[in-house]
Amino acid sequence: MKRAFDDPKASGSGPSKPTKKLRQSQSKSNNKASIASSETPWPDHFTSLFKVFKAINTVLAFVSSRKQIATTFPVIRASVEGLLKHPLEISRVAELKALLPDLIKFTYIDKNELLINEKILNRSTRRDNSPEFSLPASSYDDADGHVLILEFVDHLKGKKTRNSGFQYTAPPTLTPAAMKKLVEKRNQQFEQAVNELLLATPETENAIDLIQEASREHIPVSPNCPPKKEDKTFPSPDNRLPMDDIIEEVKEQEWYIDQIVHRRTFDAKNGQIAQLDPSLSEAISEALKSSREITTFYTHQVAAIQAIHREKHVIVSTSTASGKSIIYQVPILQFLERDSSAKAMLVYPTKALAQDQKAALEQLIGACAGLSHIKVATYDGDTPQELRADIRSNCSVIFTNFDMIHASILPNEHVWRTFLKNLKLLAVDELHCYSGLFGSHVSYITRRLRRACTAIGNRRLRFISCTATISNPRQHMQTIFGLEPSEIEVVSEDGAPSGRKDFLVWNPPLVLPEDPRSSRVSSLSEATQLMRFLMKRGVRVILFCKIRKICELAMKTIITELGNEGRHDILERVKPYRGGYSREDRRRIEHEAFSGNLLGIIATNALELGVDIGILDAVIMLGFPMSIASFRQQAGRAGRRAQDSLAVLVADPFPIDTYYVDNPTELFEQVPHHLIVDLDNKMTLESHLQCAAHEMPISLEDKAYFGPLMAEICESRLKRYADGWYHTHPKFLPFPSRFISIRGAQEETYTVIKMSKSGQGEFIIEEIEISRAMFEIYEGGVFMHQGLTYVVKEVNHDRNFAKVFQAEVNYITSPRDFTDVDAKQTLRIRDFTASRAFYGKIDLYVKVFGFFKIRSWPTYSLSSILLTFLICFCRNKAIIDSVDLDTPPWECETTGFWIDVPKALLALMYTKGINPAEAIHSAQHALLNQFALSEDVKTECKAPEKEYRVTESSRKRPARLIFYDAIGKGGGVSAKAFDIVHELLQKASAAIDRCECERGCTNCTQSTMCREANEVGSKLGASIVLKGLLGHELDPDAIPLQEQTVSLPQTIVEASAVRRANDVRIENVTQNAST
């Protein structure tokens, strides 16, 4: 049994704790029985404490499984004192908590957490003569709105569910015999904990002093009480210990159980300096010195600036925080010095990043003699209409994005003509963000811009792009801007200094160390515990979460833990940051971070890009990010100013995370995938040709910009005048750019409105996309915002808003839902001998039909489960209630393709004990892994709670691999995959054959984009499906029979034929078409 002896360095002064010695004594005694039966005599203090524990045990054993009983400390205390015949002191309970931290929950909760118990009590019947433990309603009205509870967390299993994939179990009702057994088990845990403590205590220490010292950290502090002036302090971040020492401290903590499974250290690197030739003017040199304290340049900065001077286009691919912004800021100053009419355009993927860089450039220009009159402005969707004309006419530098260039600047080229004629430099930051279908749109926008500039006489426009380290920088820049390779200078040798950096791969320990089959401790609990530990030592840390809900749950956990510890000094310096927050909230948090006020940030990948949020010492990644590139980008956020730093990957309990736990070197040695941009998509090209023709008529000479497919599209889709010029087709007039959404169709949003307690006054706290709203805002559900919980009172689907009120409830909610992806009409067929692939219309149907209320223990066991449904569970995963909803479904139509699994192949899998759902799911991901534009194609992912349920379900899915275009993006990307489907099947099958992993990985059958975290999967099954579709001979005797731990009903049935459109032609893979 573990004990929570907090490290004195985290909370002030105190004696040393026997944490390591305790573990040494445990290792000498390999089983619990030997420890529990120790003959070590107990001091009277522990004998007395045991009596207190047994009295509490007796009371709590009775109430442990009864939802109608409130375990508030005043109620439990009264009953315990009746047994002890003397007062129960809080300090004694705190000692018990110090001995048994995982068993005892002793904390303040919001009084609203008890409301559910009161409602249940009102509709339940209580036996006569049963003791009354419930809290009267009047007791809720305490001054600060919080009540102190005392509970045992036994992780009771209850009645075992027959559905192995089902994540929840109802809490058990204990029989008298079971209650007696539970009491005895707890008493044995106490005895074991005391014996371990006595065995581990050095002769120079006193066990009583140790336990009393440790208990001070477990005396609950009401969250609303003003923080006391205590000795608890943390070092200034500027005076923290070296990271190597902090890692060693981590290993000395009681809660450290060999979680670090891999450590990689990169030594500090000195900066490489070079001289600019020709040198900068005195004014620019002085401006750099006074505003940035820059007096020298790194080698990569010099190489890039001098390449611009030689009229080259430049791409800089170096590490995060290597000073890339200087590379385009210096040339801008040089252009303005030589020509006051010169213009520059800086493009950023996010508004936050643009605002951050705008402030830096304004400071630099303001410090440069002779340039103080230069105006800089932001030109984006938030820019008021009345200011736009002045920006066009009077600003020399604008910060914008490709959306504005596409929809506002180029369509109004006639009013932007002066600006474009004098445009000297276009800088694009974070170029790696532009790939896939979005990258295709951006590529055509840059071509339209180059064409417009050339037409008005500007042939000397230079392009600079900055990016994180990518595998194909020259090719990517060539594709995005339409340049010749010889025109591009690649700068990839990083001359910036870097501090020592430690990478840790952190695998949460087993819940039951003696049982290797048991589940692991919550990754969220581990990550937040590590974050608190680091902040207490003055380490500035950011915790990256993959999804918004987990970000909020992590913040709530930090609030709870630091509040219970009374560490309001740290809590007030921790903020969450994610998409969905208001612009004002995001700017405020960014300002607090940049100014050094924050010690901790909990964020989604919204902060993965280079927004300057000040110096960070450590990064914690909760679960493997979506790609190796994202992993390195997030890790690079720490140590941005050359000091030593730490990056920790805390593994989720999912197959991909497990793969990198077992193969950690791939995190550092694996080459990121090439960034792919498709310029052969006729649908995308036509859209931009319609726009380009509206900006100025197109001639055949424009193939230099738009490629060889242009002539065919112009002839068939645009309007040709007698003079030979092509004009926009009338159906797209007057504004063809409005027919194109370069980021995909804008989703509808729901407005979340907070209701005041008094019922008077409401205000908007968030806007949420409909694709998220379905799963997060439903009447009675729990919604989270900035670490606070709200209960949804009303949802209006006609006006798209939800009203919520704040309440700290003792449960979370998880939607009960299903998603069907169904083929509806066949438009094309491709035949490849053994099977056929079909392309056509696909319907998506999403239905949320209810939700579970799930009891939460945020102090100990929150864990992230499925990325798609944003669920967080406690270890015992106990359902408090199951609620039905009558909400409208979400339906939409898209296009895609599908391949039916033959009946014989389906029968073979059932014969061999292979779950067809696992096989099909893995085969789908295996195919998409071989498609370069897979980020814009989706598939139907299989959910474990549906595929592994033992009880029969009427919902059956066809034996079919199905893929579809991402909703709202259009672009026909799935059609390109359909055109090469036979090749993709061959590549996927070959990838599985050559991959040496045992159960699948991202190189073969798993996807980082899987909405069900790859929990339903079979590498063997995927191989059989793919080989069967390709017509390879399968020897049933060579296929091993798979063991099944439980008999499951069939969820996959033979696929039925899909209606064909008229005159559908069958295309052969070796021919263009055949009748």
Automatic annotation (TrEMBL):
GO terms for cellular component: nucleus. Residues 24-38 have a biased composition (Low complexity). InterPro entries: CDT1_Gemini-bd-like (IPR014939), DEAD/DEAH_box_helicase_dom (IPR011545), Helicase_ATP-bd (IPR014001), Helicase_C-like (IPR001650), HRQ1_WHD (IPR055227), MZB (IPR018973), P-loop_NTPase (IPR027417), WH_DNA-bd_sf (IPR036390). Residues 305-488 form the Helicase ATP-binding domain. One of its GO terms (molecular function) is 3'-5' DNA helicase activity. GO terms for biological process: interstrand cross-link repair; nucleotide-excision repair. It holds the Pfam family Helicase_C. Keywords: ATP-binding, Helicase, Hydrolase, Nucleotide-binding. Residues 1-39, 219-241 are annotated as: Disordered. Residues 526-704 form the Helicase C-terminal domain. PANTHER family: ATP-DEPENDENT HELICASE HRQ1. This is DEAD/H helicase. It comes from Crucibulum laeve. The lineage of its organism: Eukaryota, Fungi, Dikarya, Basidiomycota, Agaricomycotina.
